Amino acid sequence: MSERVVPEGNRRRRRPTKQGAVLSEQLIVDTALRLVAQHGADALSVRRLGAALGADPSALYRYFRNTDALLLAIADELIGRAQDGWTATGDWRTDLRSMGLRIHARYLSHPQAAVLGAYRTTGRPHETRAVERILGILRTSGFPDGLAVRIYHAFVDQALAFAAQDAAALALPPAAREKEAEVWHAVYGKLPPDTHPHVAATFPRLAADMQGSGYPFALELLLAGAAALHPEAGSTSA
């Protein structure tokens, strides 16, 4: 997509697409997510999207200025889906844990899209709601503002960094994923104790643990560290 400004009042397409659907921002984002899952970054073109939607590609400019704007909307949609159904319990550790695991899981459910957008700041409604919620969890539990901001920063960066890394691994072709897994046994499993005593001593556990994501344990470390920094923080439940 190239830069083009469409007046706000002219954005709505009234006529249905060839598939009989009325074009909307949500429909475009949902379709883009599906195409990115199938074709990767190449799916983010007006030609592919227009064909998939049964609409003239130029109609997409009524909703998104360019492909970067669409990418931000996709990233924001994943953040929104991570929050769907989430409710606060009033216990800050429980609430941050569930929020982090939801974000990580949602990105892994769309690994191709996660690789493209996990590192972006969208400034869109779902993201701003998440920022407000996470800061609210911390501040209402007694964390002072300066510490709440630093913990928020570490928490979000950790969740998104693990999401991007784990998504990139999932986005590899099946043959490449199998080869990655085999390295632990083909290389590390054969390292001799005299040169790599610690690898040899821990190998069975090491190989098993490396098959999954390190995020859940890393999240627990972060939560424990936050609790140690402010032991007075407590539950906001009645």
Short description:
With 238 residues, the protein is mainly α. The protein has helices at residues 25-39, 46-53, 67-83, 92-108, 111-117, 125-140, 145-170, 174-186, 197-209, 215-229. The N and C termini lie far apart (52 Å).
Compute the number of structural domains. Answer: 2
How confident overall, as mean pLDDT? 89
Principal-axes shape call: flat
Query: How many helical stretches?
Result: 10
Please name the CATH architecture of the largest domain: Orthogonal Bundle
Q: What series of H and E elements makes up the topology?
A: HHHHHHHHHH
Q: What integer value in Å does the Rg equal?
A: 22 Å
Distance between the termini: 52 Å
What do you see in this structure?
Helix content is 62%, strand content 0%. With 238 residues, it is an all-alpha fold. The protein has two domains: 8-65, Arc Repressor Mutant, subunit A (Orthogonal Bundle); 88-229, Tetracycline Repressor, domain 2. Helix 1 (25-39) packs across helix 2 (46-53), helix 4 (92-108) runs parallel beside helix 7 and helix 5 (111-117) packs across helix 7. The longest helix has 26 residues, at 145-170. Mean pLDDT is 89; it is low at 1-11.
